[in-house]
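Bug #77: duplicate submission created two jobs. Keeping one. Sequence:
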Amino acid sequence: RRPRIPKTLLGQYRRGLLIGTACESGELITKYLNGANEAELDKTIEFYDFLEVQPIGNNEFLIRNGQVTREQLENMNSRIVELGDKHNKLTVATGDVHFYTEADAIYRQILMQSKGYEDAHLQPPLYYRNTEQMLAEFSYLPEEVAHRIVVEHPNRIANLIEDIKPIPDEFYPPEIPGAEEQIIEMTMSTAKELYGENLPEIVEMRIKKELDSIINNGFAVLYLISHKLVKKSNEDSYLVGSRGSVGSSFVATLTGITEVNPLPPHYRCPSCKYSKFIGDGSVGCGADLPDELCPTCSKPLVKDGHDIPFEVFLGFKGDKVPDIDLNFSGEYQGSIMKYTEELFGKSYVYRAGTIATVAERTAYGFVKKYLDESNKVSRNSEINRLVNGCTGVKRTTGQHPGGLMIVPKDKDIYDFTPIQRPADDTKSDTITTHFDYHAISSRLVKLDILGHDDPTVIKMLEDLTGVDVKTIPLDEPKTISLFSSCDVLGVSCDEIRSTVGTYGIPEFGTRFVRQMLEDTKPKSFSELVRISGFSHGTDVWLNNAQDLIKSGTAKLSEAISTRDDIMVFLIYQGLEPNVAFKIMENVRKGKGITSEQEEEMVKKDVPKWYIDSCKKIKYMFPKAHAVAYVMMAFRIAFFKVYYPEAFYASFFTVRADEFDAQLICQGKEVIVNKITEVERRGNEVTQKEKNLLTILEVALELYQRGYNITKVSLHNSDNEKFLITPTGILPPLASLQGVGKTAAKNILEARMEKPFNSIEDLRIRGKATKTVLEALADHGCLEGIPATSQLELF
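Kept job's structure:
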């Protein structure tokens, strides 16, 4: 698992490299300690450009192991200096530095102990020494020699090294002939289809502004690629969700990349192309506008627009390399990745590499283990210090779950990065960029083709009901009411243990967000978007917007929710767009506002509470991301109101990996008892129990609404999908604890040939193990198997 370069390969490609002899594990010192004679050492040294010696403390473990004495280590270093002089090669004192200060050794000790090293507590002093400290380490050498290896020779080597950059500075998108013309043509034709041949000035100006940035900076090909991917998915009946700030681009809307329309709220007539824009900030989004008929042709007007500035996507100058993130159905992700390889050629598409680091929660586990095994008791402040010191340390390289890097056909991947296969699967077809994708993302096109549950759920709902989700109005009253009460479900708050009806609704089903809904009682789509922004930001809701809304200082529609809110609000207040943009960028990155910016805000009568709110924020969600997520969530919520069994079947199929049929099929009383039991355990619950709790809440609601979940059926259940039947929702075979997806698939495939007639038949044709058979028997779903045969189990 450790990367190594064969010596022959290093010799082949050594031009331009300086190669040293390394630490005690290196070839030279290993041979010296093993008693190599003068001739062997001379031959070994020939390969290297410089020789290395290290402080005695670095190799103190050799003294502890009884291999050498301190005097012998000093003699070894002296001998290496002599050999360097003999061969006219520089000898340098190196530190094998692993941490910055001597006190930082504790962090490496904790990390090494977490990996099972028994001598982790005996850390060598691998810290970064200054010149005086290094000279002191080699005080046993003549003063002139010590100065030479510590000061003179390292500087000579440093002066030999050029300043180089292993990757180019320029952006190299793949070439698609005619990409610019195709994007312009698609944009203009769709715009005229929606807004008429004579485009409204606001539409025309927005398109011109965006196309100038996109075409002049070479981004048209990225838009065209994204268009092709979304189009392919839609043709295969899978909706695509956008994430990030791509919905800030009106051209992305017109080319079918995103459903989010970033123009100000407006009406448009699909018949005569009449349009009316509300550009004063008085309306949150088009969905919040009242229904109206076209004043020209009396047809119902379409309501659209979410008031999102383009600058959030490509920067104020429009030259930031766009990052278009798309959410494809999880079950379709593999197909769309293969399609990408077809578009560009397999040898030009690579998985985006990542650097995996120690997470804060993992670091906490390491620290607790270290303290327990060392029998140490520490205060919380000391524990936090140790956790902070271990957090963010590199663990390994990995790959982005959906990121693809595209190399243009006139370039080579090695112009940008080395490549690798997964460390634990060297024969894998998956080839990943070795450099972290952040380091090369502005040089190569990176596509984010992420697998997501929402498009999968939407596809299942459409298949079950025949409803086209794009026809669902985003102001549908009963659906809106779900987010502030549970009345529309026909249940009481006590019955489902919640005052809102958002169990199972993405973005709005967690306890944290349900509490937000209780505090704010949203009544419109734009308010739901604001709540999504609150829930994804850092220091945006807690100790900030929540307090402002509760105290009546600010309304829900006024409190800062997403980064775009700041720019749009400040422009409406009269600030220059470039000033508003800079303030937004500072705030969303957690940098607050400068004194000069605050002065500008005060001049334009920006309220003090608004300025104070800006100062508290550490991170903010882009509004386009929130809009796209809420659109998906709202559509799914619509089915919960009008097609409940389809909603529950799709939820359990796609989002309920921890579904426990043995438990849930027993009914609501058992479910309530289990919920109570898990809640009593508070912070002691496992992640698996947290996931189960979410499922139990949805199942309880299903029962309270008068619907039913039947027992698993050996002969009728699917292997993984929940089915709607006349007697209730039928769970799949895999929902039984102890069965699993592979066993369920084996049973289904055998059952499709012919029904099972005995336990032995189930064991042989269905490949059912004793554990699987017992799970089926315990649940009472061996219908059709003779009782005499079932006795074989016992």
